[in-house]
Design brief:
With 179 residues, the protein is of the alpha+beta class. The chain has a single domain (16-178), classed as Peptide Deformylase, CATH 3.90.45. It is 26% helix and 30% strand. The protein has helices at 31-47, 70-76, 140-152, 170-178; strands at residues 51-53, 63-66, 84-103, 111-126, 132-138, 167-169. Strands 1, 2, 3, 4, 5 and 6 form a 6-stranded antiparallel beta sheet that branches. Strand 4 and strand 5 (132-138) form a beta hairpin. The radius of gyration is 16 Å and the shape is globular.
Amino acid sequence: MSEEEENIEIARMGHPVLMGVAKEVIDIQSKEVQEVIDDMITAHLQQGGVGIAAPQIFIPLRIVIVQVTPLCALSNGIPETPMMILINPVMEVLDESKQVDWEGCLSVPGMYGEVPRATKVSYTAYDREGHAVKGVLEGYIARILQHEMDHINGVLYPMRVEDLKRFGYLDEVREFLLG
C-alpha cells in the first residue's frame, strides 16, 4: 500500500447503510463496481480484519471479501486462506450444529461478543471477473462468511449475541477470550 493511499472510512454500528439489505450487483465488470472492490481490498488490508462487506465502506452492494490472513492464522492456530471476493453470494447452511466463538467487527470497534454460527456452509457467487464460483467452507472461514453475509443482509453480530454477559469491550472481556 502506498503512502499516498488514504485510509478508507468504515461505517460504524448505527449508520443506516449497515441496517439495510444490500442491492444485487448487476454489472460486475463496470468501472464503478471494480473501484468498489479495489476500495474494499484496500480497507481490508488497512484494517487487518478477516473480512469486509461493501456496506462497511458505505456502498450498499452485495459484495464480500473473506480471508484468513497469515497473522490471523498464526495467532489463532488456524489455516491461512487466500482472499475470496464474492459478488452476489448465496449461502446455505450444511450442518445445523453450531459453534459459539468470539467475534469482533470493524463496524463495532473495540467490542467482542460470543456468537453461535453454523460449522459448515456452502456458497455460490461470482468472482470479480464475473465467473461463477462455489464452494464449501468449514470452521473459522465458514464463520467469517456468515458474518459478512449478515452485513449484506443488514445484520450486525451483536444482534446474534445470545448472552449479553459475553459481550463487551475487548479490554473488559479479554479474560474470557484468553480463558
